[in-house]
Amino acid sequence: MGRDKGRKLAPNWEGPFRINEKFTGGVYKLETLQG
């Protein structure tokens, strides 16, 4: 996941994301909407 290291008031995360795969323990593999 791309963490935004920019300004203080900028959003913390890039997104949106789509769930690509679900693993045990509540872990998800994410992908961007562009793939």
From TrEMBL:
What name does the UniProt record give this protein?
Answer: Gag-pol polyprotein
Write the lineage as a comma-separated list. Eukaryota, Viridiplantae, Streptophyta, Embryophyta, Tracheophyta
